What we know:
Number of domains: 1
Radius of gyration: 18 Å
Number of helices: 9
Distance between the termini: 61 Å
CATH topology: Rossmann fold
CATH class: Alpha Beta
Strand order of the largest sheet: 1-2-4-3-5-6-7-8
Strand content: 15-25%
Number of strands: 8
Amino acid sequence: MPQRSPAVLTAPQVRTTTLHADGLTLSALLAEPVDTAPRAVLVALHGAGMRAGYFDNRARPGLSLLTLGARLGYTVLAVDRPGYGLSAARLPHGLALADAARVLRAALADFAAQHATGAGLFLVAHSYGGKLAMAAADTLGDALIGMDISGLGNRLAVDPHQLPGPGGRGEWRKHWGALRLYPPDAFRLGQALLSPVPEIEAAQGPSWPTLYPELAARIQVPVRFTFAEQEQWWRHDEAAVTALTRPFVSAPVRVDHQPDAGHNISLGWAARTYHLRVCGFLEECLLGRDAAAPRTPS
Length: 298
């Protein structure tokens, strides 16, 4: 009997799933490694006005974080944040950041009760999703391995009134940068990802620079920030990067820049390069855990 090719045998599938959290149901996309236990779980959190499919770029083969992560031996769980997807009907105005963090923690506990999680959870977050990742970090305890955040700073490059809100998505071109940075199908496929920005989320947006220092100071795991070359919502000059990293008093933090990319990195040509760097940073975090000196009993 002829054997199927290894590519067919090992191709991961992306499927929809649900997570239950304190009476709420969150929708999500899930990709798991084939025929092997996951080394860890990448939990992907989308930005404002988007959906979980932001991390499942189908404009060209190889650009999806879900399929790439699963091929590399990780489970990838892309969550529709509270106020998006299935939870939008129950939360038409969204949730404040602290409340959304509690819902996310409960949702991930529900997931972990039913799925193998390997070494633990690694948060991959874009834009507003990075705010939720930082707010939820200290609630996840030892299960959290690290965080990789793109498209988020703490010094705005625009006036607060220009940010996306319930009445619109902000200045459209600032989400993208030069259109040459994206495959031709990206904008057509991206229409299916768009979702209204919940009112509470939009109202809380301008307060982020004030909230940021306290959240950063509480984080205990390694963090990597990535700014696209054509990031236009957040400052990423030398002074801004210094201000971004200074509040991290208990965790190692680095800042990288992604060439040939706009704010929506995971929808562009640079998606695969960026996603490989995400997985590389996760590998560094896992190595750091494995190579850490044994704790001395108190």
